[in-house]
Amino acid sequence: MKLQSLNNTKGYKKRKRVGRGDSSGLGRTCGRGEKGQKSRSGSTIRPHFEGGQMPLFRRLPHIRGFKARNHKNWTCVNVSSIDAAFEAGATVDAQALIDKQIISSVDYGLKILAKGEISKAITIKADAFSKSAQAKIEAAGGKCEVAE
């Protein structure tokens, strides 16, 4: 292999040589147009400047509050939806709820909430229960088991 036998497969872009006559295509105004701020030498317009118009970041409403980095997204299910989907004596856990299409997945953990009524004795295995949900389940003859 010799230097003269090497060839550039990518090619290269020719440098823009401005102010070298009208026939070059970049003579006289050198591709900057006529008058104006951007035609002057040394001119820079700061990023996101909109010509004096109220900038986008000031037109948008101020976002209040914050989102904690250690926030836990519980998957919540109410006792009424469990009562409607399962028979008496059934054992309900996260996989059973996914199979019945009550929930699609469990992010952090499964929590049972107390909205609605439960009339059947059902054993429920979840990561957390609200106090009122636990009271309703046990009043109906069911059991609450905290999964590990």
Strand order of the largest sheet: 1-3-5
Mean pLDDT figure: 93
Task: Please give the domain count.
Answer: 2
Percent of residues in beta strands? 5-15%
Number of helices: 4
What's the count of strands? 6
Q: Which consecutive residue ranges, at least 5 long each, have pLDDT under 50?
A: none
| Largest β-sheet summary | 3 strands, parallel
Radius of gyration, CA atoms, in whole angstroms: 35 Å
According to CATH, what is the class of the largest domain? Answer: Alpha Beta
CATH architecture tag of the largest domain: Ribosomal Protein L15, Chain: K, domain 2
Could you please describe the fold and organization of this structure?
This protein has 148 residues and is α/β, with parallel strands linked by helices. The chain has helices at 56-59, 79-85, 94-99, 131-139; strands spanning 74-78, 91-92, 109-113, 123-126, 128-129, 143-146. The protein has 2 domains: 16-61, no CATH class; 74-146, Ribosomal Protein L15, Chain: K, domain 2, CATH 3.100.10. Helix content is 18%, strand content 15%. The protein has a 3-stranded parallel sheet.
